[in-house]
Write a structure and sequence with these properties.
The chain is of the alpha/beta class. The chain contains 11 helices and 10 strands. Bound molecules: 5,10-Methenyltetrahydrofolate (GUE) and magnesium ion.
Length: 304
């Protein structure tokens, strides 16, 4: 980025590099696991419909899965797929001993209830950690599978904070996919946690209180420079493709990056921040699921 001076560059949390090193670690652990006579860990990714952006992510996931030495099973179903057909596929994947992790890409077409589908995945293969068993375990502070995006955000935060106890973590967005599980993780770190959402009266004032600010709203550019407490660590989960004046497109986050950069202590870029970490954590969760299936550990070790 040409407008970024060298001392500014030091503030940018390099999600791509941190994701690469996590993926390499998973790859070494997979090799050791196979060396001990275990079957290759396998991840099934299910995509319903043909949203071009989702197809890019799904292909990226398959590529990274192979890079970590695991097997990848892709299921691309038409937009018209019924809920019953999808549940049949999930039942097959649940029963297939070659498959240790199952991820159904969200959002799903209107005729399919995402809650029903998510809960149809057997808990020990729920590598997204979104089913009621893993979500409940996290709420109760019991080890389980932690959702990939919040886990990736936590690892990015840990790259700049050795201890987050007592810090005020403000999370903007209260989705089941990111905001709610992120709040649980930050509580577990000993943070004071606030969650802002669509009905919050003064989101800017709330955001400005955050020593740590995690933004996951899907509204690109929502968080301006003056929404950020000077020196705060900012994690931008948003990723939106917008047109440029040259008739091309580019990816932007929920944070107005150029404004936020001089104010924040540390900040994640888009692309190259949370996105690559989400995929690396998916691989990490898949290996944990395979360890669980082989009874190497009695519960997925998600102590992070
Ligand atoms: N059940 C489910 N689990 C998910 O984790 C899930 C999902 N559904 N639905 C869609 C969102 C989105 N998502 C991304 C993953 C990687 C990048 C990623 O790798 N982004 C790159 C850029 C990729 C590009 O160039 O398009 C980056 O930020 O650097 C982005 C977005 C996972 N999601
Ligand atoms: Mg990103």
């Amino acid at each position: 980025m040409s407008t970024v001076s060298p001392d500014m560059a030091a503030k940018i949390i390099d999600g791509k590099a941190i994701a690469r090193s996590l993926t390499e670690q998973v790859g070494r652990d997979v090799a050791a696991f196979v060396e001990r006579g275990n079957t290759l860990p396998g991840l099934a990714v299910v995509l319903v419909g043909n949203d071009p952006a989702s197809e890019v992510y799904v292909k990226n996931k398959a590529l990274q899965t192979h890079r970590a030495g695991m097997r990848s099973f892709m299921h691309m179903l038409p937009q018209s797929t019924s809920q019953a057909e999808l549940l049949d596929l999930i039942a097959d994947l649940n029963a297939n001993s070659q498959i240790h992790g199952i991820l159904v890409q969200l959002p799903l077409p209107a005729q399919i209830d995402p809650v029903v589908v998510t809960n149809a995945i057997v808990a020990h293969k729920d590598v997204d950690g979104l089913g009621e068993i893993n979500a409940g375990r996290m709420a109760l502070g019991i080890d389980g599978i932690v959702p990939c995006t919040p886990l990736g955000c936590l690892k990015l935060l840990q790259s700049v904070h050795t201890d987050m106890q007592g810090k005020h973590a403000v999370i903007i967005g209260a989705s089941n996919l990111v905001g709610k599980p992120m709040a649980q993780l930050m509580l577990r770190e000993g943070c004071t946690v606030s969650v802002g959402h669509i009905h919050t009266r003064d989101t800017r004032a709330l955001a400005r209180e955050g020593d740590i600010l995690v933004v996951a709203t899907g509204k690109h550019g929502l968080v301006r420079g003056d929404w950020i407490k000077p020196g705060a660590t900012v994690i931008d989960v948003g990723i939106t493709r917008v047109p440029t004046e040259h008739g091309k497109t580019r990816l932007v986050g929920d944070v107005a990056f150029e404004e936020a950069l001089p104010v924040a202590g540390h900040i994640t870029p888009v692309p190259g921040g949370v996105g690559p970490m989400t995929i690396a954590c998916l691989l990490h969760n898949t290996l944990q699921a395979a360890l669980l299936a082989q009874n190497v550990v009695s519960r997925p070790d998600q102590k992070v």
